[in-house]
Amino acid sequence: MHKDTTYPLAIRNMPEMVSKKGNKTLSSPKPHNCSFFLAYMTSSNKRLEVQTEDQTPHKWCVSLGEEPFKRFFSQTNPAVHKVFGDGSLFSPLLFGKFFDPSDAFPLWEFESDVLLSHLRSSTQSTVHWCQTGEGYILKAEIPGTGKNNIQVLVDKGKVVEISGPWKQQRDSKAHDWRCGPWWEHGYVRRLEMPEDADWKNIEAYIHNDIYLEIRIPKSQQGRDLPQGKDVA
């Protein structure tokens, strides 16, 4: 059983960051210069296979709440702080208020510099995203403890899911870590894809064994739309 993409209460309680979806403006931000990505386009790139099929039942059925996360994060394990700490793509507090990373978030409806303004001044964030006339881009540092097992999945053509284990299960016959309290074993970030995304041609790369880059091209119809203007 997969989670639906209905916006949880956490988004509706962020009035200063709510996008203009439903109004007469484009729901996604204006295209702008993504030149900061070029610094990571080096020869040491590894292309990841993007999965499109995953029939795992009850995946992400256990939600991460704010109080359980506080108790979990209070432990002194440095791997936990690396994976879920300030500025991490997988932190429930990435967007300034608590948000379960296993719920689908409409990332590209917001400007990264605005949504992450609380982190930019302290240079804590290792996450960037942008929109161009050709598509959508996400770049993020990945946890060193799980970079070799990171998985990128397109869920039903609507959500891009980034996940992986940060701690190995001792029992190889144990149930899938994603079907229980997943944060005790792995990490996830689920992102709602824009309506004009060409999800069948999504690409994912690892740069220098540090950064994950996801490129989602726009459909031809999306490329033909006027950018940054009001639409009827």
From TrEMBL:
Residues 118-232 form the SHSP domain. This is SHSP domain-containing protein. Belongs to the small heat shock protein (HSP20) family. It holds the Pfam family HSP20.
